[in-house]
Amino acid sequence: MFKRMILLVKPYWSRLALVAILSLIVSGMTGALAWLVKPALDEVFLGKDTTLLIILPIAVLGLFVARGCLAFFQAYLMLSVGAKVVRDIRNALYGHLLFLPINEFKKESSGAMLSRAINDAGQLQQFLAQAVKDMFISGTTVIVLIGVAFYMRWDLALIAIVVLPFAFYSVKRVGIRLKNVSTEAQKKISLITEFFSETISGIKMVKVFGKEGVLNKLFMKRNRSYYQELMRATRLTGLTTLIMEVIGGFGIASVLWYGGWLVIQGIITPGQFFAFLTAIFMVYAPAKRLAAAHSSIQQSKASLERIDELLDKEVETNGKGHMGPLRDQIEFRKVSFSYPGSKRDVLSNLSFSVKKGEIVAIVGRSGAGKTTLVDLIPRFYDPRDGAIYINGVNIADVSLQSLRQQIGLVSQDIILFNDTVRANIVFGSPDVFDGHIINAAKAAYANDFILELPEGYDTIIGEGGVLISGGQRQRISIARAILKNPSILILDEATSALDAESEMMVQMAIDALIRDRTTFVIAHRLSTVKNADRIIVLENGSIVEIGVHDELLKTGGIYKKLYDLQIFSSTAV
After folding, report:
1. Does residue 330 belong to any structural domain of this protein?
2. Taking the CB of residue 571, how many other CB atoms lie within 10 A of it?
3. Rounded to an integer, what distance in angstroms lies between the CA atom of residue 406 and that of residue 236?
4. Which of 62, 224, 288, 322 has its CA 20 to 30 A from that of 142?
């Protein structure tokens, strides 16, 4: 962990160096305060030196003021280092998440990932801000005060510190248990964050099914489970303090007995003894803080491991070549695909080509592999076998950015951000003029309703576009695709969730969008694919039919069955 922490704080070594210097000075001042006890007792109280009576309080006041100021700056610097490191970690986590393969987001929920960025990183900030500061100041203070104690009286010092190894050994054993408990606690707060996130995103379903009470009880159960783990960690942390108190008590009691005997025998003066006793008392306070810092280290280990577990996930593989606009064709060559960990092929040995400007519809029963097929084109996933070629170039050999720049996607899962209409339209094309934005909105039949919004193009539409209708959201996503001006277009069930009027408006927008583009269309309603240049029919991940609408109806295959079933259903309604 320390090697990892050194790498994290390395950019801020100058601040840490200053913290170390200030810690040494503060510790030296603490030792000086212990040293002043002897002249205070021997010269002032026993010797009745009035001059020293004036000088000593001024010296003590000066030391306290100076030590307080330096400690303030030291704490501020350490807090700033902690905040900067956590900022860097969160930046690294977010940047890493952006480049993870899509399948990684299916393995772990967004709430769990969010917990690592917020809760685990926050735990590290607490460690860096408090525990590291205590390690710097308390560590050097313990060394300085033990040095003062040995200089004063080595035999008493030996009696006082001989118990410390036992204390730190016990604290270490407790720390191992504390790390395990902290790991469980972080997992459980992750579940709480995940539960919160899912509840908020699915609040409509919660309300329509009347599940408020059930979910509330379930949340309370998870929250109680986290509380129990947190209290176990608290008990273990408190146990380290108890160990230090008990063992420290043995040390102090031994020093009192032996030191008192030395004073009675006249071997040392009361001033020497009380100065030594002050130094020893002052040792135990930072020693306890060191024990607490050790507990914090164990808790932070759990958080750092969870953060590193996410950062160690491999990002998408990126080719070095450049992909320009589609000039020739898109070709699937013996492409097979299965999801990681699954033995079943979702797609099996697909081979076909799509020429520039063609509109190709992908149809089939639910689970046939339609969406998976089109997801391979922007390399959301990579084929297990075979390859996809665009302009004769394997898409695995070109950069993801240049490949995806050529692709537009409009799906039934409309992704809009809690921002203005304008910001959502320009999301994929930031460097454009207002005129281009308006033209794209007009082409998507969105300009009229946008102008009717309270702030027009500057209206905030809420998370996922919740403040506007489904058809309006879809037209904004189409405007975004038009503005991007891709040479390849993917329409994945773009009108499946709309009413008849909205579908008509969106279909008009789609007609404008697909003009002069190579388009892949996945449509639940087969009436929308009639005009496709070709229709590819999938069954269990394999191509079973290819042709145009009329031809496929005549063959009497799967396409005709799907078409008849849909026509029959619509007439029955």
Report:
1. yes
2. 7
3. 57
4. 62
